[in-house]
Design goal:
10-stranded antiparallel sheet; 35% strand
């Protein structure tokens, strides 16, 4: 099959970004999300379509929250991100939202005790961030998009807390098939630790790049119809 010129250009652009990133690699670790035990099961099949990385950015611990997308649930989006912290994140500093976002993503939040859906007694919210679109999905983390959240915290301390489970991250995902929603929680097993950012992010970056590219092409095609 012959690829359109704009698709080839997009592929080259993604490769170029990865190559440039290799020059300024920063310590990073990649994590998965899993289903919540005894919680709703409607979204269980999509838990692997979300993930996050933790980056060390010189005194800032940066969380990159990804929606890798799924063709059978292409409308699902992350509407809320919750943190259950046990002291690893700086309580004296206001976190920053929308750090190097990818896509039309916009979130607002900070210190909060907002209830994490399905979190129960095993999740006590310290920070919460919500998309700026109410019940809609315009600024949520849609397929191929990323949200960046930064805390003034020690990377190694945060990494340790993620690995031992004293720091947990929860996602609330909406617009699953049949209009359902579900929640997921960070997993402290199967993560990739102390990996240079380009190696950790290559697959994630490609997924984000391709997802964004195809979404734009699809929108252009719909306008042309």
């Amino acid at each position: 099959m012959k690829f359109p010129l704009n698709l080839v250009k997009s592929l080259l652009a993604v490769a170029s970004v990865a190559a440039v990133s290799a020059v300024s690699a920063a310590p990073a670790s990649a994590f998965n999300f899993s289903n919540i035990a005894s919680g709703d099961t409607v979204g269980d099949a999509y838990a692997n379509n979300f993930g996050f990385t933790l980056e060390d950015q010189g005194g800032l611990a940066v969380f990159n929250i990804f929606n890798f997308g799924n063709s059978s649930a292409n409308s699902m989006f992350i509407a809320g991100v919750f943190f259950d912290d046990n002291g690893s994140l700086s309580s004296s500093s206001t976190p920053w939202a929308n750090v190097n976002n990818v896509g039309e993503v916009a979130f607002t939040g900070g210190a909060s005790n907002a209830q994490f859906p399905q979190g129960g007694n095993n999740f006590s919210t310290d920070y919460a961030f919500f998309s700026n679109n109410g019940a809609g999905n315009a600024f949520g983390i849609q397929a191929g998009e990323k949200l960046g959240l930064a805390f003034a915290a020690n990377y190694n301390n945060v990494l340790t807390a993620l690995n031992d489970g004293s720091l947990k991250i929860g996602l609330h995902v909406q617009a699953l098939p049949n209009g359902a929603s579900d929640s997921y929680i960070s997993s402290n097993s199967g993560n990739t630790e102390n990996t240079p950012e380009p190696l950790t992010m290559l697959a994630a970056g490609a997924a984000v790049g391709f997802g964004t590219m195809f979404k734009k092409q699809r929108a252009q095609a719909q306008k042309a119809e």
